[in-house]
């Protein structure tokens, strides 16, 4: 594989540019004649727009245009779409309300755009936006799930009676009910999965440029999937045709899911660039990010688990209300259904599962996929139940889990997923050893003697990644296929460019993808460049999310590489007058096995392009493409255990230790994997201890800045101890499973299990802030 | 940010004169409170008068029984001061748990006192130590300086020049950080004066900003020990309640932080 191939912790190629401030983000792009957009946003969570007066704003210095929601409607710009159709249990489709990019009539969440001002400078746009006079008639507000489903609740959209978008089920209800009736023990929990704000480092931004001579648009935007953005913008919004629209997602500073979706602001920038016939730029500020980036999670769940007399799980019954906010964002419908309920079997052999998910509208920011997307919520349900059951049944929580682990593969769960491979016991063993589980009772006793409350918590998570087999997701309602494409271009002098439909916004693809190629050919990674994020360069791609870039994106590169290598071997064999079957690739050379005859890659490439001496009938050039559609999801899994101490005087939790034992299949670059796990754990711990988006009853976001929304800081987190227990994924040629979301999926249950162990009661919701923990202890 | 005119006077008198001339002038010290508010367009001063470069407003002095910190002295400079460490280590500790390094490099003691954020740390030290706030016009006793949320005894245009802290027999500060902002969710400063008096101030807890805590003072006066507070109850009347802490939680924190401050004070 070579020193820089798969498995090597190579330093990231992209970091030189990032660390020296040479990254090129959307906001860094300079275009002649650029104008600046500033949005006029609703201060109310629910209101009727009686009138908008733009006259004064139009006359302000530097103003190029003032555009309103009504103009968007008049121009027949399409409403925002939701790309995954969910069918309710009664067979009806989802009840989706219209979401125009700027509200013409009704605003349904605080921060929704109603107009935009385009001006020569950012400040002029902002000044003029303040001069836009909007007369609102306030309407009653439903600011959370409970308020939205109450009888007589304010109705958000005429399409969705009682604010219910769908009432969906999965699994066998009758069999599950029967298993509960026959159960020796039942454990039940009410769970709130707190709402989170993604807070990528770089706020969303867009620069739209219209060339009227060519009737062509270019959109530079902060996207995790520029091709999907182009597809949606052209196919649904009537702004530009696909071949007349180039979407570029240059360096992007984090996404965590929030940059998958096509948002109103980017659409408006594109539309406005033609209206004012000037390039238009919008860069969101942090306040706009809080108010308009799709939030994550926000479930209310009742969950019950049935056990037989041997403490084997016999059934799981779950009812979840999911808050989708005021409008249905691009993949919002799939997150609490197919990305959530299909993982409710966890790592366990559960013969009967039934889940019902009711998604509702509220007067809040739309909710969609956020790191883990549905799977953290599922994992939290299962792992909180397991821990609670162990306490109720008075058995060791590790042993209860072990007793119920799935141990033979493939394993078909009652909720669609077919797990291909895993060794859950190995991960748990590794984590227990790392944390010295056996020594915990003594440590707890010692802490108690010192007046401290110590607890330990386990979380054995599983996730479905490598998203996703196109046919399978199509049958479940997805509007897109989830394959990936790649193109390998060997240049005439032997350097290589890889064009990929994956998009890197922090994941390190420029390094890991190059490692795959470098390893196969035995060349340094410096000879390989990764090209991504530009619809003019890469033919098509589905982007990066759902821990899919290694399992799906790299598998596409693998396939394209096989084609390139096959052709190169033919050329080499021809040049060396040897049999193609005898050619092997080593250290950048094509060798005839068993001889000292060889030809270097640059010479093979040159031969391909000069075409002076190719085998008869061979086309010149050395460039191949491939599409890869996975046959199954991948199933990363692992065991996280944390040990914490609670200060009973203040309710503050501090970490004694946090260990993570993950099975990600093959590791491409262990250092990058470690970084991904660290980041994921930070977000999982953030959800458990710190983060929570809170609205008041009038629909105002109370946590609309970092002064009130607690982002994890370095000193909130322990030094993690990581280990890996590997079973290779049989579903893709690399054996990889994905590692991008695991930490965020598995960590929060471990933390809450540990705190509830320490304080000796289970009445604790996330985020387990000092105030809440103190009240849980003291009432 | 709206347009404004920036001035950099070199003396206190010049600053006061510029302020008088401005339509809606504001003094600027570290800018860590004023500038974010201006960027959000929640403040639109016509003139911004920078006090940070006035030599007379920077420095720390020990004289007799007092430690005097000039108004535009940064938190960082306080942390570096051997005099401060020697005279009142509790002030240095308070400074070390205030904000983050960026805030401590820019923020000033005068800005903090003038702003009187109900969760700021320094007001607790000023009140508990019975400090004197010196201005370009007069001296104001710490007890009379803070007037509820974000308001003080300062008159329009009055400049704080220094804060003079009497050196105590013992003093300690303990702070429960607000999880998000890292201001004080509740911070308690306890003082035993050289005359044997006990003064205790709590910040972050009350709806009216920094306050004395008589119940804790009485118990500590009788018995200067953490244990002396075990049976003290703090009323929740007038205490803050928000998503980060109920009033009952803050009442508890006043007691627990006071106990820890006493332990720290020795
Ligand atoms: C991220 C962050 C975290 C923070 N954390 C904490 C914390 O944990 N604890 C804490 O106590 N504070 C905290 N602060 C606030 C910080 O201490 C501020 O810097 C301080 O409140 C104001 O000081 P300044 O020098 O920055 O004043 P400025 O912002 O420059 O001024 C503040 C106000 O005081 C006035 N003013 C300034 N100097 C004088 C003077 N000499 N005479 C009269 N008026 C004057 C100004 O006109 C203005 O109205 C934090 C701030 C930030 C941004």
Topology record:
The complex is a heterodimer of chains A (779) and B (266).
Chain A: H1 15-19, E1 35-41, E2 47-53, H2 55-58, E3 63-68, H3 69-74, E4 106-107, E5 113-119, H4 122-130, E6 133-138, H5 145-149, E7 164-171, H6 173-181, E8 185-196, E9 205-211, E10 216-221, H7 226-236, E11 245-248, H8 264-275, E12 280-283, H9 286-292, E13 296-307, E14 313-323, E15 352-360, H10 375-393, H11 397-404, E16 411-412, E17 418-419, H12 424-434, H13 440-449, E18 453-462, H14 470-475, E19 484-490, E20 496-500, H15 509-521, E21 528-531, H16 549-576, E22 583-586, E23 589-592, E24 598-600, H17 601-610, E25 623-628, E26 637-647, E27 652-663, H18 670-690, E28 721-724, H19 742-759, H20 770-778
Helix pairs in contact in A: 10-19, 15-16, 16-17, 18-19
Chain B: E1 5-7, H1 12-21, E2 25-28, H2 34-39, E3 47-50, E4 60-63, E5 66-70, H3 75-80, H4 82-87, H5 89-96, H6 101-106, H7 109-115, H8 122-129, E6 132-135, E7 139-141, H9 142-145, E8 160-166, E9 170-177, E10 184-192, E11 198-203, E12 211-212, H10 214-222, H11 247-265
The complex binds flavin-adenine dinucleotide (FAD).
